[in-house]
Amino acid sequence: MAATSTATFSIGTTASLGPKMSSLPQSKPSALRFNSQSSLRSFSGLKAATSVNCESESSFLGKESSAALRGSFALKAQKADQRFQYHLQPQASYKVAILGAAGGIGQPLALLIKMSPLVSALHLYDVANVKGVAADLSHCNTPSQVLDFTGNSELANSLKGVNLVVIPAGVPRKPGMTRDDLFNINAGIVKNLIKAVADNCPDAFIHIISNPVNSTVPIAAEILKQKGVYDPKKLFGVTTLDVVRANTFVAQKKNLKLIDVDVPVVGGHAGITILPLLSKTKPAVSFTDEEIQQLTVRIQNAGTEVVEAKAGAGSATLSMAYAAARFVESSLRALDGDGDVYECTYIQSDVTDLPFFASRVKIGRKGVEAIISSDLQGLTEYEQKALEALKPELKASIEKGIAFAHKQTVAA
Question: What PANTHER family is this protein classified in (predicted)?
Fold first, then answer.
């Protein structure tokens, strides 16, 4: 977008993609007006240093919203009676690859990532049908360039120079398919993709969505170790959907503004290994024993709720894509220097006696900067018992993944 004297950007209702937005008031239709004193060459991924006045016509620009804008535009804000003076800094841009971009999660995820102002190039990879997805997305008038890559022969090129890799590739469970069948197929897919990541972009952030996450993340770790490029701070199992669901269900149950609610979810990413820490909910709210039981079970079984509602026509693809996009945006903000990025994610961890565990973490330019272990302190009796109950199942899933990786031969 070009402007010579005055540039006006209208931005509608704004929603947060980060977990640190709990102090935001609920969004309402609103607008921002940017008046530039010099040329603005593009709407996002702004490169030129210039000055912009920002007038807020509503109250949605609180402290945390300012942080979100700063993360996208690298802006330094000074507040004065709902008027802001921003100084645009040189804006870095990032390349993101989606492996499995033509699937049920991959397509809506690609659309959401295409909307990010931090993305300069979006690489879409799949074994088939990805050219049409890329052509479709390329018509969206957001700055990122869309490139498509099909089949194993183009996998390496899809990963060259990439800063962040998202892996939703895999198959959903189908009628007649056992859990072992599902595991073997998806574990093999993840193994092959991670080998390519190790060879072509070993320094990239890696986001794993492919189920079972409790096992596929340990598989990825072992393959990266065999390749000699493992950085535990940059390997993430995407459990954001559990947080998204917990926030939504608690807000509905307690009639809270959804934008205000933040519930940490720890453990793993399947069944009873998902442990929402309702006692740590922000804002603080009390629950009856019955509410705790109902909410916990609903959060743990929310995927089944969607499958049943779709009556065999699919699974939780849209909410998963939203949650994954939120985690991608958080990671990109961290890479871009935002010092206030926190998410729950399944990572290598020593906060329990398990080698992998989902916790709330602080993410920075080099990956995980800190694990918020204090979330596991002061648990209720219910939460403590649930924590101990999930450990055997999570341990078995981790060991299953490691054993699978060790059976594979990885070329150096």
Answer: MALATE AND LACTATE DEHYDROGENASE (PTHR11540), MALATE DEHYDROGENASE, MITOCHONDRIAL (PTHR11540:SF16)
> Which of the residues 87, 123, 207, 269 is marked catalytic?
269
pTM above 0.90, yes or no: no
Between CA 119 and CA 223 the distance in angstroms is 28
Domain definitions of the chain by residue range: 1-91, 94-237, 240-398
Percent of the chain with pLDDT strictly greater than 90: 70
| Pair 77, 70: CB distance under 8 Å | yes
Interval 310-355: pLDDT, tens: 887 888 999 999 999 999 999 999 999 999 999 999 999 999 999 9
Grade residue 53 by pLDDT with cuts at 50, 70 and 90. Answer: very low
* CATH class of the domain defined by 94-237: alpha beta
- One-letter amino acid at 376 equals L
The question of whether 269 is a catalytic residue gets the answer yes
Q: What is the pLDDT of residues 167-205, one digit of tens each?
A: 999 987 666 667 778 899 999 999 999 999 999 999 999
Amino acid at 262: D
For residues 246-270, give the mean pLDDT: 96
362: left (phi over 0), alpha (psi -120 to 50) or beta: beta
